[in-house]
Amino acid sequence: MNGDRATLESLSRQYKDSVPEDLREAKSFEWYLDAVYEDPRIARNAHQRVADMFDHYGTDYDEDAGVVEYRMAAEDPLHDGENTFYGREVHESIHEFVNKVKSGARGLGPEKRIKLLLGPVGSGKSHFDWMVRRYFEDYTATDAGRMYTFRWTDLCDVIRDQDPEDDVVTSPMNQDPLVLLPQEQRDGVIERLNEALDAPYTIRNDQTLDPASEFYLDQLLAHYDDDLEAVLNNHVEIVRLVASENKRQCVETFEPKDKKNQDETELTGDVNYSKLAVYGESDPRAFDYSGAFCNANRGLFSGEELLKLQREFLYDFLHASQEQTIKPKNNPRIDIDQVIVGRTNMPEYREKKGDEKMEAFNDRTKRIDFPYVLEYDEEAEIYRKMLRNADVPDMHIEPHALEMAGLFGVLTRVTEPDDSVSLVQKAKAYNGEIDDGDDVDVRKLRESGEERADIAEGMNGVSARFIGDEIAEAIMDSTHRDRSYLSPLSVFSHFEANLENHGSIPEENLDRYYRYLELVREEYKERAIEDVRHALAYDLDEIQRQGEKYMDHVMAYIDDDTVEDELTGREQDPDETFLRSVEEKLDIPEDRKDDFRQEVSNWVSRRARDGTSFDPQDNDRLRRALERKLWEDKKHNINFSALVSANELDDDERSAWIDALIEQGYSPEGAKEVLEFAGAEVAKSELEG
What we know:
Strand order of the largest sheet: 7-10-13-3-14
Radius of gyration: 33 Å
Protein name: Putative serine protein kinase, PrkA
GO molecular function, one term: protein kinase activity
Structural class: alpha/beta
Helix content: 40-55%
Organism: Halobellus clavatus
Oligomer: single chain
Domain PrkA AAA: 27-421
Pfam families: AAA_PrkA, PrkA
């Protein structure tokens, strides 16, 4: 390495270090037997290997949600976090997918089913499928995920009509070398493997050789008088098998073509016309193992937009999933071993769901709902990821811009609640914004949402893709205007202007979505005013003093005691007017005041036992209440109309307010905008009041 410059030598060394040491090394069958006796996991089937892959990259248990989060999805260690997934619902779906694969690994049935990812457009199901394939490729290149196949060698020495070009033939289906053993001998080996195996599953393999390999084995056994050892020693080499979608090796994707041009040979393979003249039509060597199911063997088959296929074309999936075989036209059946994953959007699923002729196919699928994110803070992380992966280094994203964009998306996705909470309150509850005193049961909200939804909550609405596109447009618009910041107001404007122009949004939903956008504007207005309130009226010493006064009066109230008056020094009853002036800032009703006071009292007592002094900054609800009271006390001395115009304010005073907003994460220009926006809104409400 020369400084920071990579030389050809260093690049070559880095590459060599990245590939398995035995990638190019041919081994004997005897070596393979020793290897699997030492590490039985080498002989895993596809479901078992994929199941172990998810655990290999690490897991975390979310105790609150009761969901295992797989780090390959939650952190994306292979790509430095570029493809992380966010949202409780999405990780629940991934957890469900992995559980089905793990059930299949144990032979409980899902190994004979298609794992069908169902979700709306832009929900991330395709991206998750893509990530599984990328990680499978990487996993098979590691020692923990290694697998092997075999190749036939020196065939022309024995088989007279063998084409010299086919003197060395790699297993067309990339089969496990154990398949070379007759079933009785193979069962004995597998029994020993399972005795040494430390895993929640057992090794199984009752596959037959692919037709071409079976032909070669028969010919060679006849030549060596059924001496299997001679055949395997003289004509079989064991080679490392690393999955690669680009090479169509153990990973394959299948995309539906024009219905008129669909051909089952795309899935199951076809005659190799270049070999017909050499071997003849009925010879198994004249078959081309290039079908998607053939290429996916030992790994992953991914079917894109699966339900767009013709019904007749889907019948091939019945054998592939249930029987774990394929039957090419005019050829013997071929055993397959793969995890079959399908993806489909909502319209195709609804169309096929009620089709009685699709009953057999539906019965062979395991549906995994892949909904939109329903927590707007998590949704905002999707947009942050988008911006991290893009070239926008000079654009400052103002507070609330991405969260409010996410809130709009979530409002379009959740079902309307009953009258106990508003739609925005429901979205906040899903986001974890529930105060201890709030009478909101999130579990019941979710259960009710699922009952009210068509298929499941989060399966309809505006996609993160649409919102991300509008954020991108708003950024470019800001750039053209020489603005170095992106504000929520700019994002709202782009939403409003482009909702009607987006083809994925049904026209009958537009009025409702515009109404939701107004709800988001109102929520942002409250947050903007809160930020400006914090900047204009924030006084740490005063909040501490008011907090201590509040706690003195609360403790006296609870203990039915008196408190000393600050001015006269005389003992007096707790000041109920003062206590309520604080509590009303959190909308705590009269009949809930005792609960809140006891809650705060318990919090102070716990801190005292731990030796921690009282600080209202450490209690979010109390801090907000005191800030709002301080605001109410001071706002009559603030000229809100003057905030809209820089010319009417003292420069030093305005600079101090802008500095306070900058400390909250605003850019200088964004601080000016929110100051003017909030000032105008408060001035308007003051006039209306």
